[in-house]
Amino acid sequence: MTTSCVPVAQGGSPARPERVIALAYQVDAPLTYDPLLAALVEPPQSLARGAPPFIMARGAGRRQLELATDCLAAAAYYEARSEGVAGQRAVVQVVLNRVRHPGFPATICGVVYQGETAALCQFSFTCDGSMYRPRDPRAWSAARRLAAEALEGYVYVPVGLATRFHTLDVRPQWSRSLPRVTAVGSHVFYLESGAGGRSAAFARPSEQISGSRSPA
Asked: In whole angstroms, what is the distance from residue 196 CA to residue 109 CA?
């Protein structure tokens, strides 16, 4: 079995643009598994086949790791602080899944803050003022710990390759046309439709991306 590492992420933070984060994910098996096709002949839980683990690429500095961890922790903390460990891990996994998918920004911070400057936030906390409120130190520390574990290769299997989620008290129009994977706490998780939800769609080109700006 061969292992390939595909550079997939770099970027900055809203306050510090053009910080480069070189991330990679380790693929220990070919990305040929199709969860949508498998669901036709296997139980529904086949949609939750785990994603390959993320690992920090060689050469990534301490500051780069800290920046990636902070962006990932912010998503976990603000989106699922009340959901406990499972709920926060689920959100973290969605962020990492998006980083791998060509339909979303190729950086962790870019995914988390996508649409912030255009008021079309992918994550509501980046636009609704939540980040300006004092954080609970203990809860923030816990979120950073979960984020760090994800960047060291921890995979939250139940959400599979899900790239979208919403709370149980709403039903976005897009949810009507996407395959539902599972519910974790108060969130429901979905795959992209068609080929976009297949494993092969989650491998970005093996190239180093540089010079892009994250939301300011």
From this structure: 22
Amino acid, res. 109: C
Instruction: Quickly count helices (H) and strands (E) in the chain.
Output: 5, 6
Question: Among candidates 106, 105, 97, 55, which has minimal Cα distance to 197?
Answer: 97
Per residue in 91-110, pLDDT tens?
A: 999 999 999 898 998 889 98
Total-model pTM: 0.73
Give the whole-angstrom CA distance, residue 47 versus residue 34.
Answer: 9
Q: Per-residue pLDDT tens for 146-187?
A: 999 999 999 999 999 999 999 888 888 888 888 899 999 999
> CA-CA distances (angstroms) from residue 172 to 41, 53, 81, 113, 164?
28, 29, 22, 20, 11
* DSSP one-letter string for 10-65: ----SSSTT----EEEEESS-TT--HHHHHHHS-GGGGGPPPPPEEEPTT--HHHH
Beta bridge partners of 4: 27
**Closest Cα to residue 14, out of 131, 141, 148?**
131
Question: Within its chain, how far is the Cα of 39 from the centroid?
Answer: 23
Which two tokens mark 205? 């080109």
Q: Are 91 and 76 in contact (CB under 8 A)?
A: yes
State how far the Cα of 34 lies from the Cα of 94, in Å rounded to an integer: 18
- Give residues with Cβ within 8 angstroms of 199, minimum separation 6: 31, 32, 33, 34, 35, 49, 161
